[in-house]
Inverse folding.
């Protein structure tokens, strides 16, 4: 086989081998564009089906007799938006510093007037010392768990290093059961300042020591976000 023919064969094989990954990338881009279009059909901040993080972080904590015993100071979220723990100040019981309450283990439920515990005020007083003693390890079990306060104000970047925008708010489902939307102010070129909602669970969250989380979008997601906002 002559050198030109060998070169053409190698080039053809390289193109053919790249085709599946190109098709996958295009599919991921198209799917994310569709998701963004549906999510932002109405400005997410204007939807009554969502609650803003600033309101969620002032919600009351109720005992099993519907008595207000504290207030939410922060919420620890998993990467898919589910609540892992509440950081609660039991100011009505005057117990001391805020502590983390494991959302599932303590059978906490989100209700219209706050977060309801499965314990009464006396039971909470009894278990409070144990909660305080374990505070260092109670803020989330997975390395990508992060707090709402560290998500709001965080920068969203693409995996190839482009700065996409800054998180202005986290929108929760009705009654605050889970995080659904990152509400973003764009920081990319001429799109700076324009707003867009992103599905909370679609991105990667990287907690940092004592600071804002790093939030990473894939290249295809970043391209879709930029193109979608340009088209609006």
């Amino acid at each position: 086989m002559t050198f030109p023919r060998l070169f053409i064969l190698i080039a053809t094989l390289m193109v053919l081998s790249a085709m599946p990954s190109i098709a996958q990338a295009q599919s991921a881009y198209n799917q994310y564009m569709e998701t963004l279009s549906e999510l932002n059909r109405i400005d997410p901040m204007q939807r009554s089906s969502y609650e803003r993080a600033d309101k969620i972080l002032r919600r009351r904590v109720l005992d099993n007799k519907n008595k207000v015993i504290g207030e939410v100071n922060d919420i620890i979220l998993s990467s898919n938006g589910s609540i892992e723990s509440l950081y609660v100040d039991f100011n009505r019981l005057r117990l001391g510093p805020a502590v983390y309450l494991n959302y599932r283990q303590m059978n906490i439920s989100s209700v219209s007037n706050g977060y309801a515990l499965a314990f009464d005020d006396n039971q909470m007083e009894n278990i409070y010392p144990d909660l305080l003693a374990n505070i260092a390890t109670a803020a989330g079990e997975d390395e990508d768990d992060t707090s709402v306060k560290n998500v709001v104000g965080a920068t969203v970047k693409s995996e190839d290093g482009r700065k996409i925008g800054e998180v202005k708010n986290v929108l929760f489902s009705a009654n605050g059961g889970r995080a659904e939307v990152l509400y973003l102010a764009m920081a990319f070129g001429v799109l700076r300042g324009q707003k867009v909602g992103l599905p909370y669970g679609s991105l990667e969250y990287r907690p940092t020591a004592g600071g804002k989380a790093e939030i990473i979008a894939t290249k295809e997601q970043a391209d879709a976000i930029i193109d979608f906002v340009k088209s609006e």
Remarks:
- The chain has two domains: 28-50+145-231, 53-137.
